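Entry 12.
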Amino acid sequence: MYYLYFATGLALLISIIVDRKKTLTAIKISYKKFINIIPAFLTMLILVSIVLFFIPDKMISDYLGNNDKFIGVILASFFGSITLMPGFIAFPLCGILLKKGVSYMVLSAFTTTLMMVGILTYPVEKEYFGVKVTIIRNAISFFIAIIVALSIGFFFGELL
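Predicted 3D structure (tokens):
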């Protein structure tokens, strides 16, 4: 992870050398956006922490994959499909779930369906794209998410 910090710092340094004014403007804009995101991020993190506090670790690991990974993938895909959550909240949540013993395959099913399938956004999508395109897009996205989850499971040796 430290190499990413180093690469980011190096890129920032190069950017300052190339165009100091644009870099400082970009830093100010990103700071303002960060400050705007913090309340939503902290609220969601607190809510998720409360829920994870009250749900026993064994229950999470039982339902999301330790006993039957395929049931875990289906459940995670279902929850991901019906949940509306930005990525900056979903990824830390997956980090917490990973520490609780949930497999990479299940986490990939959750995050992929979360980002690609939109049950809650169906009414808005239907207005812009039409019913047929919305259903086809969501169905294809769901199957791609399952394929991604199975590929992750294979890659990390969780299917063997």
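Annotation: The chain has a mean pLDDT of 86. The helical segments are 2-18, 20-54, 57-66, 69-82, 87-99, 104-116, 122-129, 131-155.
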